[in-house]
Structure formats: C-alpha cells, structure tokens
Design a protein that fits this description.
With 264 residues, this protein is an alpha+beta fold. It is 33% helix and 23% strand.
Length: 264
C-alpha cells in the first residue's frame, strides 16, 4: 500500500512551503521518473507535491537574446514551439526526439533537468548552451548545476522554475539511443555563441560533461574534421550490457562530428 499525503499547490510559494515542511516530500511534474520508482517501491515519500496546477511554471517566451522555458513545459511543446524553432532549432530537434509520443506529451523540461539522469537529453542542451537555471531561490549557471549522477545543486526546499537559454549563433545535437529504452547511450550537443564554443557529452558517462579538448579544437576551426583527432578517454565512462566504456568513447567522437554537421 502507498501511504502518503497528496498536495496540489496553486503557487510556487505554496509549493516551497510544503516542501520545506516535509523533508521526505517529493515534487512531481510529469511523473515519468517518480511514478516508476513508486511502483517498484524504490521511493517512499511521505507526501507528493503536484506542481501541475501552477500556471507560472508553464510557457515559452523570448526575453532579449534568450529563450526562457518554464519548468512545467512539456517536451512536445518545446518541440513544436515556433519561438524555439526560430531561435534554437537544435533545442526543438532534441525535444522532438525524446522518448516516444507518450513521454513527449507528459514529460517536462524541469523534471528532466532536476532529475539529471545520465542518459537524459535535456542536461546536454542546458550545459551545451550555457543556460541559466532559475529556481524558487536563485539563478544557477549550468556549469554549477549538474553535480553527477542524479545530483544537482538544488537544495532540499528549492524548486526549479524555468531555464534561460542564450540564443547561439549555431548549435547541433546528435545521439545514439538504445533501441529499446530510447535513452541516450552517447550524445553530443555543440554550440557557438555568447557562451563561447561548447561541446557537451551526455549518456556516455555517469553525468553530463564538457569535452574541453574538442571545444578547443572546434574553437580553432568549426568543422567536423576539427575533432577527428580528439580521442575520448574511456576511463570512467558507463559500461553495461548495452555497450562497453570503450564503445561509448568511440561514440562520443562520432556523435560530436554529427552534431557539428547538424549545426552547420
């Protein structure tokens, strides 16, 4: 039997109060991570705080030279947004290739980024574009937000409210996905813009990370061949029944080249 209280606050302030009052509470948005964990008894919260009724957490808008996306914005909304497609087509492309139709119509960008699954797509874009994560307390640079497998800079009583993406000159994304789960085995998000040249790898390791050697090579020459001589070290990469660390290291180079081609 499940035994927890259920809350559906109407404001960010009310949600924060509920979260601060119960150390064992869990926040739920799309539910694609939390609900499976509950079904398998891997998580036993004393209360669930459903954010779906908070209108301030939804929506996409252009603010100056950035695109700001509310935490409760669903993947399908990012994928089909004319605002996103015009400013950061690589982000719309990424969203359109997350999971399947069911996942894209229920999952949210805030839930994905807050969970920081090593095989998720959005952390690659957030770090790859040098985005800023807005929370109920503060603003956190992407370089400071992701702290390893399923770990972020979010505090226990802090809620992700929006993500601010600087509009790049160019950006591209490519991934090799597991054919069964569609989670990323190795992906690369590349960009050139106000945050400099970035090459970010997701899926291959225990967390999303910047590939500094590829960034330096790409800054010197923006071309797929620029990263051909950069070899990803297999040490510390994921290794499982789907692919060895050495295989994933090889995929990093392949996906980086494809992402650069996609960026143009």
């Amino acid at each position: 039997m499940y035994d927890f209280a259920y809350h559906k606050p109407a404001s960010i302030a009310d949600a924060v109060k509920l979260l601060a009052a119960d150390p064992e509470a869990k926040v739920v948005s799309g539910g694609h991570t939390l609900l499976p964990a509950l079904k398998h008894r891997l998580n036993k919260p004393t209360s669930l705080i459903d954010l779906s009724g908070i209108a301030d957490l939804k929506g996409i808008k252009k603010v100056g030279n950035s695109i700001v996306i509310g935490a409760l914005t669903r993947h399908v909304e990012v994928a089909t947004s004319e605002i996103v497609a015009a400013a950061i087509p690589a982000l719309a492309y990424m969203a359109s290739h997350i999971g399947d139709n069911q996942v894209r119509n229920r999952g949210t960008i805030g839930g994905s980024v807050s969970n920081n699954d090593p095989a998720a797509d959005y952390p690659g874009a957030v770090l790859g574009l040098g985005a800023t994560v807005h929370t109920s307390k503060r603003k956190i640079a992407a370089d400071d937000f992701f702290q390893g497998m399923f770990t972020t800079a979010l505090e226990a009583d802090e809620i992700l409210t929006a993500i601010e993406f600087p509009i790049p000159e160019k950006a591209g994304y490519a991934k090799m996905k597991n054919p069964a789960s569609r989670y990323v085995m190795a992906g690369a998000f590349v960009s050139k813009g106000p945050m400099g040249v970035r090459v970010v790898i997701n899926g291959a390791g225990p967390g999303v990370f910047r590939q500094s050697a590829m960034e330096a090579a790409l800054a010197a020459s923006w071309a797929p061949g620029a990263v051909a001589g950069v070899k990803q070290d297999a040490d510390g990469l994921n290794s499982d029944i789907h692919g060895s660390a050495e295989y994933r290291a090889h995929l990093v180079g392949v996906m980086a080249k494809r992402a650069i081609i996609a960026a143009g």
